[in-house]
Amino acid sequence: MKQIPIKRGIERVPGGMMVVPLLLGAVIATLAPNTPKFFGSFTGALFTGALTILAVFYVCMGASIDFKATPYIIKKGGTLFAVKIALGVAAGVVLGRLLGEAPIEAGMFAGLSTLAVVAAFNDTNGGLYMALMGQYGKPRDVGAYTIMSLESGPFLTMVTLGVAGLSAFPWQTLVGGILPLVVGMILGNLDREMRDFLAKAVPVMIPFFAFALGAGLDLTKVWQAGLLGLALGVAVVVITGIPLFFADRLTGGTGVAGVAAASTAGNAAAVPAIIAASNPVYTEAAKHATILVAACVVVTAILVPLVTAWTARMVGAPAELPDEHADPAVAPAAVGPAAHKEA
């Protein structure tokens, strides 16, 4: 039977194993949003199982991380976290003085507010970051998101905006976010054969996770937000991506991890409404901010894989340190040969 080079064709697209399934999921979600409910069962699960796939991804990726890499994870994750939040604070301070709490009422920037910009800047798309690092980075770069996950939720946005309330994260949420990765790390460090077994699954899961992620994106949000939403999404990639690139290089990375973190998380779209519920002064801004942040989620989910793939091509693939940080027998399996071809 004549073979069709599907995989080779996908890999010709920058970040293809992430971008192509993601766009496919987004197109189906936009044009036929009831597809998961219509088919249900296993087909429906492919559309709605992003968190489940991500949980398994965490375990498998964790298995490929050596305990010796923990200081690196703290340094890398802490640096990227600090830079991303610092940029959000800077934007909040500058725009807060110019705009205050209310959105711009007229002109080409109508609807733009301090709340929208800070919410878009503050929260990194963790699933996107981990999938890209599984393809273009090192296993321990994936683990860095355990620190960056502190961005999730409205807390840091509230701090940035000076809003009172929600002074701490629920400990269950924090533990639940890192537990699969920790379990994987324990398994992989107790048994090298288990590490090798689980690490091989990482590159295979990327397109499935990407499709489920895309199925949660509604491309009409970009249309509703118009050019302003598109511009804000591009601004997130450029304004946060450049400092994150250099911050990553300062921690010994190639810059790829920094660029992969220059996105807006899907749950960030819910932050404006939560902020408004905590402080009614933001009620008017939240109406527009929700749409703008949702557009940023879509725009950055498409742009970041492309820019990350281009950056990986320019700076080259990262090299694991076999003796100090990783087991050379499993490091290639964690990244995957296909990833190097795309990079």
UniProtKB/TrEMBL annotation:
A UniProt-annotated Pfam family: KdgT
InterPro entries per the UniProt record, alphabetical: 2keto-3dGluconate_permease (IPR004684)
Record has Nuclease as a keyword: no
Subcellular location: Cell membrane
Membrane topology (UniProt): Multi-pass membrane protein
Cellular component annotations (GO), alphabetically ordered: plasma membrane
A GO MF term: 2-keto-3-deoxygluconate:proton symporter activity
TM annotation in the entry: 12-32, 38-60, 81-100, 106-122, 142-163, 169-190, 197-217, 223-247, 254-277, 289-312
Catalytic activity as recorded in UniProt: 2-dehydro-3-deoxy-D-gluconate(in) + H(+)(in) = 2-dehydro-3-deoxy-D-gluconate(out) + H(+)(out)
Main localisation: membrane
Keywords: Cell membrane, Membrane, Sugar transport, Symport, Transmembrane, Transmembrane helix, Transport
Highest taxon, organism lineage: Bacteria
Coiled-coil blocks: none
Family (UniProt): Belongs to the KdgT transporter family.
The protein's role, per its UniProt record: Catalyzes the proton-dependent uptake of 2-keto-3-deoxygluconate (KDG) into the cell.
Name assigned to this protein: 2-keto-3-deoxygluconate permease
